[in-house]
């Protein structure tokens, strides 16, 4: 026969579980693991990549983001891929872009969903196998994944 | 995916060697799979998995998407005008639905 205290504690615990988000939140560690998977654990240099994203995003459901990479985009020297990584979203790797010399310029824009204020990383993979990145901190006023899509 | 869910904006003409910007917009919920409906039932994930652009028989751009991309995904990118022909844009979602848009580019000079 459970005591009244146990019942109250149990109810509180059940309520707490129900309120937990269904997806485990990401963490800087998961972001780092995703980054290491992409780079094969190799070195990543800062530079050549410019991540343009608002410093304060009023609505995390749609955050306009541009990644540009300095590259001549020739057959011998071009950007092979661009990745955007999150340290707070349920999924660390938000998107990956494949491109090549026929892109002409390495610049891509899209709208991201951000679950919380965080550092966003743009990672570029060059044709010579090197990796470059830019990182920006975004303050999210209304987070995605809470409600409304 | 209902009527005309996708739109692509790009120039109809370009000079050979010019870099053109292409803007692609798809009407899609990009449902994360993390939400529950008003009865507490989980809402199934429904997202566009892949977008690609083919020009002159070659893939010139592709994006792998996740729940981390906003609903009605917008993608702007570039390509070099090489020769007159058709550009084929495709979106594929995780239910296997594919939407394709074709645009003609006339290349001069």
Helices and strands in order:
The complex is a heterodimer of chains A (149) and B (109).
Chain A: H1 4-19, H2 28-39, E1 44-46, E2 49-52, E3 56-59, E4 63-69, E5 79-86, E6 93-99, E7 106-112, E8 118-126, E9 131-142
Parallel strand pairs in A: 1-9, 3-9
Antiparallel strand pairs in A: 2-4, 4-7, 5-6, 5-8, 8-9
Chain B: E1 6-9, E2 13-15, E3 19-26, E4 48-55, E5 58-65, E6 74-80, E7 85-93, E8 98-108
Parallel strand pairs in B: 2-8
Antiparallel strand pairs in B: 1-3, 3-6, 4-5, 4-7, 7-8
Structure description:
The complex is a heterodimer of chains A (149) and B (109). Chain A has helices at residues 4-19, 28-39, and strands at 44-46, 49-52, 56-59, 63-69, 79-86, 93-99, 106-112, 118-126, 131-142. Chain A has a single domain, classed as SoxY domain (Immunoglobulin-like, Sandwich), CATH 2.60.40. With 149 residues, chain A is of the alpha+beta class. Residues 12-21 of chain A have low confidence and may be disordered. Chain B has 109 residues and is an all-beta fold. Chain B has one domain: Sandwich (Immunoglobulin-like). Chain B is built from no helices and eight strands. Chain B has strands at residues 6-9, 13-15, 19-26, 48-55, 58-65, 74-80, 85-93, 98-108. A five-stranded mixed sheet of chain B has the order 2-8-7-4-5, with no helix packed on it. In chain B, strands 1-3-6 form a three-stranded antiparallel sheet, with no helix packed on it. In chain B, a hairpin with a 4-residue loop joins strand 7 and strand 8 (98-108). The mean pLDDT of chain B is 94.
Question: Summarize this, please?
Answer:
Chain A is of the alpha+beta class. In chain A, 19% of the residues lie in helices and 41% in strands.
Count of DSSP strands of chain B: 8
The average pLDDT value of chain A, as a whole number, equals: 86
Task: Note the quaternary state here.
Answer: heterodimer
The low-confidence parts of chain B are none
**Overall CATH architecture of chain A:** Sandwich
